[in-house]
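Hey,

The postdoc asked me to send both predictions to you directly instead of through the lab channel. I've kept everything plain text so nothing gets mangled by the mail client. Protein one:
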Amino acid sequence: MHTTDLVPRLCLTLANLNRVLYFICDTILWVRSVGLTSSIDKEKWRMWAARHYYYSLLLSLVRDLYEISLQMEQVAHDRAKREKSPSQDPGCSVADEETEWLQSFLLLLFRSLRKHPPLFLDTVKNLCDILNPLHQLGIYKSNPGVIGLGGLLSSIAGIITVAYPRLKLKTH
């Protein structure tokens, strides 16, 4: 990782450390499941594994949101260069301004992600992946169908990044 920006560097480092801790917990659970030892508290280690997986995904999402904000800023800057002065409608109500703000934000988000498909895929994958630890930790209970659909979408996003390496999110 050769990024100069502190936020992605810190998020990726902490996410990777949590992923390592998750794999350690998962290995301990595997040792118990194959019968090498029975003295391991399965539920305790399952919760530790879920917790570290959750932290890893949460930090990856923070990094994605940071990158999205940078992309949105760039798209807004480029658009401002093209348009000299934004037109203001003098007859707008407060409700119209709120709706217009939300529409502008969503349009800017859409344009930013459309210009950066790797960021879109990584964000979708992390959002889908986080459903399982949220459920396991009791933070947000969901049904198995939603968790399964999230896993399917995450797998499809992962397969796309393997099939088309240019769509894998890279650090700057």
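Protein two:
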Amino acid sequence: MPVVVEDVMRLLCSISEERKMKAAVKHSGKGALVTGTVAFVGGLVGGPPGLAVGGAVGGLLGAWMTSGQFKPIPQILMELPPAEQQKLFNEATAIVRHLDWTDAVQLTALVMGSEALQRQLLAMLVGYVTKELRAEVRYDD
């Protein structure tokens, strides 16, 4: 049975949904852009004092915009481009390659029946999200 990317992605979505995992992708570039833009406009409008006020307001606005934007990991996984899904698929199949399964439902049932496999896949997923996506992972209770 050929291993299908969609089946493995569904498995990872199921595991992360079960653990109520969310991630906040850090948008530092967006915050820097907002800060710089507001400081620039402040400088144009108010000269040197406007630049100082614009920089302070832009910094606060940029920090507020980029903080706490947590999204469910299943949503993030399904929005990944195909190349990134393939990379994640390769890492996950290295963990589940010894299992004999025919579809996503059977694969998910096999993995959910094994705490050790769940831990391995979760560790791989958390590593991917934190390193590749540079995101912070949170578990909701």
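Summary for protein two, as requested: The CA atoms of residues 7 and 41 lie 50 Å apart.

Thanks,
C.
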